TrEMBL record:
Gene Ontology MF terms in the entry: dioxygenase activity
Cofactor(s) the record lists: Fe(2+)
Official protein name in the record: TauD/TfdA family dioxygenase
Listed InterPro entries: AlphaKG_dependent_hydroxylases, TauD-like_sf, TauD/TfdA-like
Ranges of residues in domain TauD/TfdA-like: 30-271
UniProt keyword annotations, A-Z: Dioxygenase, Iron, Oxidoreductase
Length: 286
């Protein structure tokens, strides 16, 4: 995996590596509070390692407490529902986000005015150990570093045009598949994985079109890109435990979800935190 810089002030915490990338801090004693960890240090850890897992800490008391904590990180994205998205399966969902199906790889904010830098997840209740529902994160800088130059050159010719209408937006975004990290400029992938049109169980397919390569080469480019994003060398699969807090780097990673058993008690909360300054979505058309 890519060498990540050490974060000097992190020495005061017991920071352990997560495979294949990311770091974890386990609560030093029962009842320890996430809010007592230094946010400047945690932010530097996420920027360096892209995933930070905080495990065993006292849970936030409710969505308001989580939201207040996230404000220590920066300006939260505000949605029609507020800042805290309650990710729970709905009985008859109008969109796959609230279903138990898989969620294809994407980046958060792709259809919004601003792209958040961080996602902060709290696991209120984990699904059962055999229920699936893992959140998947792909390290796209590592994907590009490890692919052969000819393959990267083909991916770099692709542009995605994405249209998605759901409860909270009806937007079109156009983005090159390979683009530059908005802060340090390293190459990253911005891609929403297509779902096979024949997957009739998938609720509310987005409308995805890709240009820049002839049709036969496009199919091959999707296949190689998908394989690289899901290569275990670049993919962190997070199996939730109740109480976990996971903070991810949305500028570098793509993320998705594995399908889970319908009716499993999976309950996550998610807050998005904008960068400093907030990143205006470069791809939003409308
Ligand atoms: Fe997402």
């Amino acid at each position: 995996m890519t060498d990540a810089p050490d974060v000097p002030a992190a020495g005061r915490y017991d920071v352990t590596p997560v495979e294949p990338f990311g770091v974890a801090i386990l609560a030093p004693e029962p009842g320890a509070r996430v809010a007592d960890l230094d946010v400047t240090t945690l932010r530097a850890l996420v920027r360096a390692h892209h995933i930070l897992l905080l495990r065993g800490f006292a849970p936030f008391g409710g969505p308001e407490e989580l939201s207040a904590y996230c404000e220590l990180w920066g300006e939260p994205s505000v949605w029609p529902f507020g800042t805290v998205l309650e990710l729970v399966e709905k009985e008859r969902p109008e969109d796959h986000i609230f279903d138990h199906s898989h969620m294809p790889m994407h980046w958060d904010g792709m259809y919004r005015d601003h792209i958040p830098e961080f996602q902060i997840f709290q696991c209120v209740h984990a699904p059962g150990a055999d229920d699936g529902g893992e959140t998947t994160f792909s390290h796209t800088t590592a994907v590009l570093e490890h692919a052969d130059p000819g393959t990267v050159a083909r991916w770099s010719r692709m542009t995605g045009t994405y249209h998605r209408a759901m409860e909270y937006y009806d937007s079109v975004t156009v983005s090159p598949v390979v683009t530059a990290h908005p802060v340090h400029g390293a190459p990253v992938v911005r891609y929403n994985e297509p779902v096979a049109p024949g997957d009739g169980d998938f609720v509310n397919h987005p409308d995805l079109r890709f240009t820049g390569l002839p049709d036969d080469e496009l199919a091959e480019a999707h296949r190689t890109l998908r394989a690289a994003l899901h290569d275990p060398a670049h993919l962190y699969v997070h199996s939730w435990r109740t109480g976990d807090v996971v903070i991810s780097d949305n500028y570098t990673l793509l993320h998705g979800r594995n399908a889970f058993t319908s009716g499993a008690p999976r309950h996550l909360r998610r807050v998005q935190v904008l960068g400093t300054p907030p990143l205006v979505n470069p791809g939003l058309v409308r």
